[in-house]
Every structure is written in structure tokens, then in C-alpha cells.
């Protein structure tokens, strides 16, 4: 099934807004049951693991999320944002892929060095 650009844009917008707002029920509706997440701080497989990882990041590291840009084409979206922590704003890139109306793959990259500066 081909996903159109506007559907992908709406889904990814809901994903980020729900994550930022700690709205876990809505966030869950954006993710495929078998969502595959690979990021700097970990890898998850399945919606339950993904929600647990995003919840942990939101509750223990993230103090805010500032959208800088989003590029969407068909089933793919790249979101450039700053992950705000107590000590830094981490420029972050997130690639999301949509299949059958849900986000099925997520790849995230950022420089985690500032997170370790206080350790």
C-alpha cells in the first residue's frame, strides 16, 4: 500500500506532538504493532518496547522538543528538531517510514556527548 505525503505528514506530526505532550495513548495509535526503532540510545522492536523507550526518554532526559524542519515525501519523513534537556539542546534527525497507516520504522541520530558531560 502506498502512503501519500499528506497522510505521512499528519501521522508524524501526531507522533511528535504526542511524545512532547506525554500523551502515550495517542502516541501508541501512530505506531505499527511491529515498529522497529533504532537510535543512539537504544533499539526496540514492537510497539510496547518503543513506547517504553520513548516514555523513558521523555520522563528522564527530554525537557522539551523544538521542531526545526520536516521534509515528507510519500511514506517517508525526516524531522529535524532540538531535543531539549536540562543542560543542552541536542540537534536531532528522525527518519520515520509509514506502512498501512502506521509508523513502521524509525531511525534517530544525534550527538549524545552533552548527555555525558555531567557524568
Can you characterise this structure?
There is one protein chain. The chain is an alpha+beta fold and 119 residues long. It has a single domain (5-109), classed as Nuclear Transport Factor 2, Chain: A (Roll). It is built from 4 helices and 6 strands. It has a 6-stranded mixed sheet with strand order 2-1-6-5-4-3. Helix 1 (5-20) runs antiparallel to helix 2.
How are the SSEs placed, and which strands pair?
Elements: H1 5-20, H2 24-30, E1 31-39, E2 42-45, H3 47-60, E3 64-73, E4 76-84, E5 89-99, E6 102-110, H4 113-116
Parallel strand pairs: 1-6
Antiparallel strand pairs: 1-2, 3-4, 4-5, 5-6
Pfam families: SnoaL_2
Domain SnoaL-like: 12-105
InterPro entries: NTF2-like_dom_sf, SnoaL-like
Q: In terms of per-residue confidence, which ranges show pLDDT below 50 for 5 or more consecutive residues?
A: none
Straight-line distance between termini: 46 Å
Count of DSSP helices? 4
The percent of residues in helical segments reads 25-40%
Beta-strand percentage range? 35-45%
**Main sheet characteristics:** 6 strands, mixed
